[in-house]
Write a structure and sequence with these properties.
Layout: H1 15-26, H2 30-37, H3 40-63, H4 66-76, H5 90-104, H6 107-131, E1 135-136, E2 139-140, H7 141-155, H8 163-178, H9 185-202
Antiparallel strand pairs: 1-2
């Protein structure tokens, strides 16, 4: 999540770039849909393949020769954050997160984890950047509330997920998204949200 007033040179992109970036991010909602429509083996094969292809793209973008770097920069530079010139792209990290949650958690939990990061992060970035005024930890309260509100509505589409479990996942996802962690929140948010939801389901006496 990046607000206009709190953006750093390492993470800032234009408003147009942010809109395009989050539009692409929203297409990741097809991933939890595929969790339910396809067999687990097919999902994992597709995700492993996608992670490998996206990683190859990143390696070419970071370590390729100047002509390759310049060509990729012309095509995708306006939606890339400056820090991604030397790290994995958001596309790679979201695909990696999808693979991890699918391997680790129950189907409903894995799908809910992906909805939380995709919908929540998009809402937090756009609303926080546009309307964020109350700042904390380089984020905005408005953005964090938008994260919880929109991901909360989105997670209601997940079948057979108890409300208390869903709310806990949304809440911890918003908290982790706001923390200045060194690991990309595309990975930390779904893993943390999924871990808490899975724990509550496994120990249903607690809810």
């Amino acid at each position: 999540m990046v607000d206009d007033q709190t953006a750093t040179n390492d993470s800032y992109i234009s408003w147009k770039g942010e809109l395009f970036r989050k539009g692409i991010h929203l297409t990741s909602l097809s991933i939890p849909v595929c969790f339910f429509l396809l067999s687990p083996s097919i999902v994992r094969i597709c995700l492993v393949t996608a992670v490998l292809l996206s990683t190859i793209f990143d390696l070419l973008r970071i370590f390729g020769n100047d002509s390759v770097k310049n060509w990729l920069a012309r095509l995708f530079g306006f939606i890339m954050r400056p820090k991604e010139k030397r790290t994995l792209s958001g596309s790679t990290t979201i695909l990696l997160a999808a693979l991890l949650v699918h391997l680790i958690y129950d189907l409903d939990v894995a799908a809910a984890s992906m909805v939380i990061i995709v919908v929540g992060d998009t809402a937090a970035a756009l609303i926080g950047r546009r309307f964020g005024r109350l700042k904390y930890m380089n984020k905005s309260l408005e953005g964090s509330l938008a994260f919880m509100l929109f991901s909360g509505f989105g997670i209601l589409l997940i079948p057979d997920l108890l409300f208390k479990v869903a709310f806990a996942g949304v809440f911890i996802g918003a908290v982790v998204e706001a923390l200045p962690l060194p690991i990309d929140d595309n990975i930390t948010v779904p893993l943390a949200a999924g871990a808490l939801m899975q724990l509550l389901i496994n120990h249903s006496v607690m809810i």
